[in-house]
Write a structure and sequence with these properties.
The complex is a heterodimer. Chain A is mainly α. Chain A is 77% helix and 0% strand. The longest helix of chain A has 26 residues. By secondary structure, chain B is an alpha+beta fold. Helix content of chain B is 39%, strand content 15%. The radius of gyration of chain B is 25 Å and the shape is elongated. The chains are: A mainly alpha, B alpha+beta. Chains A and B meet through helix 1, helix 4 and helix 5 of A and helix 1 and helix 2 of B.
Chain lengths: 109, 332
Amino acid sequence: MEEYFHREWVRSVFSSAVEALRRQAAERGREAAFEAFRRYDLEPEDDRERPTYAEIGRAIGQPVTQVTNYLAAMRREFRALVLRCLREQCATEREFRAEARALLGVDPA
Amino acid sequence: MTWLSDAALDRLREAADHPDLSGTRYELRGVLGRGGMSTVFRARDRALDREVALKVMAAEGEGTVSRLRTEARVLARLEHPGLVPVHDVGTLPDGRVFYVMRLVRGRRLDAHAREERSLSALLRLFERVCEAVAFAHAQGVLHRDLKPANVMVGPFGEVLVLDWGLAKEVAAAPAREAAPVSPPGARSETVALGSALADAPTRTRRGAVLGTPGFMAPEQARGEVDALDERADVYALGAMLRFLLETREDDAPRALRAVAAKASADDPAERYGSVAALADDVSRFLSADPVAAHREGPLERAGRVASKYRVPITLVTAYLLMRVLLAVFARV
């Protein structure tokens, strides 16, 4: 049961971060980058359904190298947003660090 | 709000943890291991077309960034066959510091010890661990987290002391006993001593307790960071030796148990004054010489001497027996 609640909590934090990432990308005119991220990291239900970088590139009209850059940038920003969401949800610095470690395996000391 | 599938959750978790290596010459291949403060990844160095291990600090804070940088710097300075060479150090686009080292193949000493049947072979490995640590001490570096899990035994018997994440730079202290300054097991050679690092910053918060219970010296467990010297590592090596002896099915020799007990004495003053002195006693045991940690009784001494001179004693006994037999046959 505890595991279930933890996973749902992770889902809620990550969902908030993804939403913030989508808004941030739209504000900065980086919809194509978010679209690559959505197609590669968010949408597939199964790893076997994951499109190749080339397929994503064709879909958004960008070369494979740009898809790689987009994905790297989106993941980086996603990570930062997760930490920001966590900070907002945690009452104390200690709690924040413990949750960050549990969630991402990081210690944002 | 975007609903995320379980598969997406797992991918995002992995994506958030995995380092972004864009702009570097490395290509991520997978995770090798995760520790409390860092993760080690398998990566490919595209420039040199070889596999490497890439260690990334999990944390992003100022203290932890400098910790990984210091670890890389310390390791880069410690050039020894028993230490993993560092190839590169850098910062990821997300601010996390990483360093690149040789990809070590082999298995951990704790796993190796459970399968190694020969006590002598295990003790020789232990001597090599001591050599590497003694070298680091000569360079003014304490490991502070020595344990079997941090020692890797390679396929050709090579020994590597890993995880210098808690290493502390101190002044290279003079040995307290009449211990050799050269590496144990190579007494005629000279160690190239590096500069003392008394001015180097202490890498842990004052009083912070870092280490592994069971292998951590009492003074380290009490957080007496400033009081730590090489005897803290001697304690850990003593605990490691005890661990190795406990993996044996038969009882370990008393002399060896005494060596482990002396090395891991609660009071630093009762321990060996240096890792070299500890290794020296282990070498003495291997050569069937008396060890400094144990006063043997007459029977024990006789047994040891008999063991040491087994071949000549056997030859002389056989010779005498033959003479007796010849004399007997000559009379008949």
